[in-house]
Amino acid sequence: MRLPNCLTALALLAVVPMSALAQAPAPQAAPQLVRAAVLRVDTPELPPISRLELPPEDIGFAGARLAIDDNDTTGRFMGQDFEAVEVAATPDTAASELDRLLGEGIRFVVLLADDATTVALADQAGDRALVFNAAARGDALRGEQCRANVIHTAPSHAMLADGLAQFLMWKRWPRWFLVHGSHPEDLALAEAYRRAATKFGAQIVEEREFTDTGGARSTDSGHVQVQAQLPVFTQRAPDYDIMITADEHGVFAGYMPYHTWDARLVAGSAGLVPRSWHPALEAWGATQFQNRFERLANRPMREEDYQSWLALRMVGEAATQTKSADPVQLRDFMLSPDFQVAGFKGQKLTLRDWDHQLRQPILLTTGLLTASVSPQDEYLHQTSPLDTLGIDRPETACTF
């Protein structure tokens, strides 16, 4: 005879030990959500000299996506979940987009913008958000224009120039011919090379300015004009070991190799280039890191991707270490001396407390390879060899 439903349930309970019922797992709590945003401010510019340098549509965003995947890999075991909103803005819409993100309760903003826009948006965010500068290289942003609510994952001009200078002095190439562009960013980079020359004992034998006339960068006869004009531009320079180019807008430096009047190497913005990242790096676990990015983005990783990845990995590492999703607690830990993050560059990366610049090695790269990594072994420091790159504590003009 079939029992009624209620009697069936009672019969089943009778054969299940009460101890087993007591051990039934409790419902899991909702994961802690850590929210961030990546705000990229796109400024209209002429195409780069080489079509191989055309920026992909997801530049910066792809690195952030990999960071979120990496954060979630650990987060799922810690009861934490990470997300990053992606916003592409123009200089005209950036302020309103930032206000919208802050209004949605986002307290970590990864910013890819030029120097002036970075300062303006950081001031707009104020104490409502921690801003990660993942693009702007200006030394002033780490100096007289520094902001307490900004962390710099992009290396500064001074760090890049010092990284290259150390290697050139190790090679015993101390005589430099400095050629810089006419844009303010070019002049700022040139000043970083002057400072590096003084710091490490190099001599700038001459400086010349290559003026940007705003013309087309590639024409049917472009290579003919370059081949005829650049040797003339570089002739009659005093004897030098290497040409240093300071060309932040990609106007002329890419043409310099093989077009100098004298048979000389080129470095700086072309030739041997100091970078935060290079897609050919394979040491220190970088091969696996590169492979994961390429599977995700179907292209090699660029510096903007790496710097965005670093920013969100800092947030993820802070959340893991503190076991918290509270923005204030995460910010305080990231700014503390106990914080460090892995960056696939041979050592842990830490934050300078005097200007909030992330310490990191500088890769010296050719088109295909990483030729060297600075700091060079010969340069020592009482705190960290990484502080031989860039503005050290006694030199800083930053006051928070």
Describe the protein in words.
The chain is an alpha/beta fold and 400 residues long. The chain folds into two domains: 32-155 and 278-360, Response regulator (Rossmann fold, 3-Layer(aba) Sandwich), CATH 3.40.50.2300; 158-274, Response regulator (Rossmann fold, 3-Layer(aba) Sandwich). It is built from eleven helices and 14 strands. It has helices at residues 5-15, 18-22, 61-78, 94-103, 115-125, 157-170, 184-200, 222-234, 286-297, 303-322, 327-334; strands at 32-41, 80-89, 108-112, 130-133, 150-152, 175-181, 203-210, 242-246, 265-268, 273-275, 341-342, 348-349, 362-365, 370-374. The chain has a five-stranded parallel sheet with strand order 2-1-3-4-5, with helices on both faces. Helix 7 links the parallel strand 6 and strand 7. Helix 3 crosses helix 9 (286-297), helix 6 (157-170) packs across helix 7 (184-200) and helix 10 (303-322) packs across helix 11 (327-334). The protein starts with a helix and ends in a 26-residue tail after the last strand.
